[in-house]
Amino acid sequence: MSATDSVPPLPPVAEAGAETASDKAVQPQRRNPLHGLTLEAMLTELVEHFGWPELGARVHIRSFNLDPSIASSLKFLRKTPWAREKVEGLYLFMKREQARDKPR
């Protein structure tokens, strides 16, 4: 057995202009408005826009209503997928409303 028998073959070279698997994985993120945005940034912007009382009324989460803070809310949202989805949805709604209200 020679030394070259144990070397695995090289992967095929992609043709020019061909998409690789990593390109396909990145492509859906181009249209994702939340891509690259942290939960903390979203929550901070929501609190600035709505305030804690309105945010608590829109998303019924105890950490928004009783002694609210960014830190306690982030801790809860990171552990609770349904609550995070509601906050992300409200954030997208807020952004759509802001874009619609912006003068052109």
Provide an overview of this structure.
The structure is a single chain. By secondary structure, this protein is mainly alpha-helical. It has a domain at 37-104: SAP domain (Transcription Termination Factor Rho, Rna-binding Domain, Chain A, Domain 1, Orthogonal Bundle). It contains five helices and no strands. Helix 2 packs across helix 4, helix 2 crosses helix 5 and helix 4 crosses helix 5 (81-101). The radius of gyration is 22 Å and the shape is elongated.
CATH class assignment of the domain at 37-104: Mainly Alpha
Radius of gyration: 22 Å
Helix content: 55-70%
C-alpha termini separation: 73 Å
* Mean pLDDT metric: 82
Global structural class = mainly alpha
Count of strand segments = 0
The CATH architecture category of the domain at 37-104 equals Orthogonal Bundle
Shape: elongated
The CATH topology name of the domain at 37-104 reads Transcription Termination Factor Rho, Rna-binding Domain, Chain A, Domain 1
Strand content: under 5%
Q: What is the CATH superfamily of the domain at 37-104? A: SAP domain
**How are helices and strands ordered from N to C?**
HHHHH
Largest sheet: none
Low-pLDDT stretches are none
Please count the helical segments: 5
Descriptors:
single chain; mainly alpha; Transcription Termination Factor Rho, Rna-binding Domain, Chain A, Domain 1; 5 helices; 59% helix; 0% strand
Layout of SSEs?
Layout: H1 21-26, H2 39-58, H3 62-65, H4 70-79, H5 81-101
